[in-house]
Amino acid sequence: VHPNVSQGCQGGCATCSDYNGCLSCKPRLFFVLERIGMKQIGVCLSSCPSGYYGTRYPDINKCAKCKADCDTCFTRNFCTKCKSGFYLYSGKCLEKCPDGLEANNHTMECTSVVHCEASEWSPWSPCTKKGKTCGFKRGNEVRVREIVQHPSARGNPCPATSESRKCIVQRKRCQKEGKGKKNREEKRKKSNKDESKETRQESKGRAARRQNREQRENNNKTQLKKRKAPNKEQNLAPVDTAH
């Protein structure tokens, strides 16, 4: 072993030197060169840093640099995230998205254009005028629909979600709320009055029947006493007129 090479290294190094740092790594670790000023130092990491991708070989695992416009990559020719100012599309970083695609500034990717989609129209509403459905001949009716898919930046805009049209109905008078309420109150009072009258008549009828029943019972008792009582004239003794 070279005098400058040590095997008693730290930080995941298998071999190292005082000047160049790690020269080889322990199994499963990646070897990468970090530049410090004009000097490059070898380090061993469990995963490659941003801007690098890992390759495994039988003798060593190494981290290699991505392309200049890639922030992270899977291989040198397949980016997974682009640097600022570039849009990711099929593993490549582009300054401008291809035709038929649009740039998504949130994800920094080229995505498909999404057009607006609306649901079917609802049935027409009842014919109304100033919120009422009576007291007029010509009014308006409306129908609505919902947006089920909002468009992307370059997608077709959404259509109107409501429509209105004129309508004709058979004229009918509106029942006045105050009059209707008064009629309902009068009907309720009359109903209560009729119920009270019927209740009084039923009470009088029960009292009359009870009185007749008591009168009949008294008459029966009187007749029964008369039949049982002896005739006073028959029980009188004959007067002796001889003296």
TrEMBL record:
Q: Which PROSITE patterns match?
A: TSP1
UniProt KW Disulfide bond keyword: yes
Q: Which residues form the R-spondin Fu-CRD domain?
A: 11-110
Q: Where is this region: Disordered?
A: 169-243
Cell inner membrane as UniProt keyword: no
Give the primary localization class. Answer: secreted
Q: Which SMART domains match?
A: FU, TSP1
**Function noted in UniProt:** Activator of the canonical Wnt signaling pathway by acting as a ligand for LGR4-6 receptors, which acts as a key regulator of angiogenesis. Upon binding to LGR4-6 (LGR4, LGR5 or LGR6), LGR4-6 associate with phosphorylated LRP6 and frizzled receptors that are activated by extracellular Wnt receptors, triggering the canonical Wnt signaling pathway to increase expression of target genes. Also regulates the canonical Wnt/beta-catenin-dependent pathway and non-canonical Wnt signaling by acting as an inhibitor of ZNRF3, an important regulator of the Wnt signaling pathway.
State what protein this is by name: R-spondin-3
Q: Gene behind this chain?
A: Rspo3
